[in-house]
Amino acid sequence: MKEFLLGLRLLFGAGRGNRIRFFLMAAGGSLGVCCLALVLTIPQILDAHDTRAAAREPRTTSAQPAGSTLVLQRADPYGSVTFNRVFVAKGTEGSDSTPPGLDELPGPGEVFVSPRVHDLLREQPAVKGLLPGRETGLIGATGLAHPDELFAYVGTTRDRIADEGRALKGFGYDYAPFPAVEPSTLTTLRFALGSLVLLPLGIFLSVCARLSAAARARRLASLRLLGVSTRGIHRVNAAETVVAALLGALFGLGESRLLNQMISRTGLASLRWYPEDGALSATTVAVCLIGCPALAWLVGRAGAREAAADPLAVRRTAVPRRPAKWGALLLVTGLGIVTGYCATGLTDRPADSIGPNAFLIPVGILLTGLGLVLTLPLLSHALARRVARSTRSLTLNLAMRRNEVEPGSTMRVVTGLVLLVFAASLAQGVLIQLEQVTRPSAPVQDYSVPLASLTPEQQRGLAGVEGVRAHAVTMDSWIDLEKLDGTLQEQATALIATCDQLERMVRRAEGCRDGTVMRLVDPNSSVGSDLTPGTPFPYRFGAGKAKTLNVTLPSERIVYSAYPASAVGSAVLLVPPSALPAGARPHSAQMVLTSSSEPDRVREVLDGIAALAPIAEIELIGVNIQGLEQIAVIETLLAVGMIMGLVIGVAAFVVAATDRAVERRPQVTAIMLIGARARTVRTVQCVQVVLPLSIGLALALVTGKLAESSYLITGGSAVYWDFAGTPLLALAAAGVVAVAIAGTLPLAGRRIDPELIRRD
Predict the structure, then answer these.
(1) C-alpha angle 606-608-610 in degrees, rounded to nearest 5
(2) What b-and-e string marks burial along 574-601, b requiring 16 or more CB atoms within 10 Å of the CB?
(3) Model-level pTM greater than 0.85?
């Protein structure tokens, strides 16, 4: 305890410079803790989204006893987000059950909407077609996953949803139907954020804990020579590092709380949350208040070990030992793992992420990143020694000799930036894998609406919706379940359309003749290739006493090319409308509409469909709207991680470079007193940083691309080698070098102070 109090007295009584360094350590630690707290609250925010979504999920049964309350759920795409609607027909039973956010269920003609829908109804009046009724109230925050959610409860009558509605038993499940991020993807996201933020953060906190390490080591060595024990030296050192880290942790938690209040109100792209969702949890506070001081203590203990063990060598500034080689072992091990998985991508059977691979891949990537950091001092020492022996340039010789003597000091400056480039490549791999979720890429967009949910008037109205370029009906052949004898009965989907309608829905069509039943053949698809001409297929029409129309598969063909995601692609027959019975409505049929895939046009068509058939279920062919929402959330979180990683990397560079310049003032002063010009000194300072940084960035690019490829291969991605992203990463690395050059130039001061040499 005496040594700890001695450390506190030295901390505040050793001059203004020491106090400034202490507050710089605390300020740097607060920035790191703030980023750490924000990263730790991300799973908490996503979990809060899913908890509220699960609590409002209706619990239903397919049976419809008399007097039961019926509900019908619709999740329609609105742009790139989901518009959730719950139609409610109140009965005598179940009407007392209310979802979170409502005091009562809506009656016929009543609509409860979320605040975002409330605003949308005034910005886009066409949305009114989705919500038949009058706006009665707003849904409370407890009933919404996030503040910007599009959600509404629509009161209706029993007869309108009796065919598809389900009897309400209550509300609330233990799981969300569509989580904000799938659990498997959340694991990947945590790993990516850990690489983007936590690895650079550990380096940054270590840099903050090692501010003015040389001056502190000399002070500790003096205390050791005065008789303080080895344990006492560590306690004295802990008084500065641990107290600074603890103070920084407290400030960092306060900063993260303020940022949560600010960002939750303004929101991020594709991610919004309530302030209480991002509140600091007990676990986050414990990790920050215990983990960060513990890390500072470990780093400080490692720095004080030499002063305690050999104080004379520290006071006389003995030549440091050569960097240890065990860091290279980690790099070789990690590269061996990721390179092995990359090699499987060149074979016919690439590795997957099942079994031990699910553990080895992240271990290999982490070992590669950690080994990269620990190997840089060794590489810098070896390169500096070789260049210094062979060069005849005074500038290079001065720069390399200093790097040879203090390789660890130089690498503390560049490590954060090197890790940033390595992690950026990994983030790019995560985004590439997520892009495998289907996105609309064709020039047209198809919409499918169940024909049974449309009246004849609605069907005719949908054909004339503004923006619709073509319409048709697909129907499935009928299978008599009572006559099945265990054999597989062939089935065929028919497209009811004219030749003109067909040509508007596909890329091209050849050989079509109006008024004739013809076979549809797409050379790029195997649909219907096993069917034999002459095979009859029955199609059912009407209600009650249904009529059957037998259509024989003809040999006459229409060769066409469909778009990647098309409702026509599943059809094997083209049936002209004139071949159907008058006024016939086929069973198991879908009405298909086609429009341009431009976002504004898609929105216009969806609004038009909703205005005519608000309860009908609309499917956007080829679009996974929940997948797109998840990708948007993950892209936002990765962008936040990149920004935090960039801030941490730049902060680590600025702090380490400034501290290094202050530590080296005696050496710089000595060089300038013997005649070196300021330009030469600045060039030496620049070369000392830029050369090892360039080596580190080159290694980061190579190892990062290998780690990215191994992740993509085992993840089953369609893209293994993402060379398209290499120029962007190379440009980012060049930008990092430019920032490093700009940051080192002002560090050689113009004023020469000989007192610095006398003090040393």
Answers:
(1) 70
(2) bbbeeebeeeebbbbbbbbbbbbbeeeb
(3) no
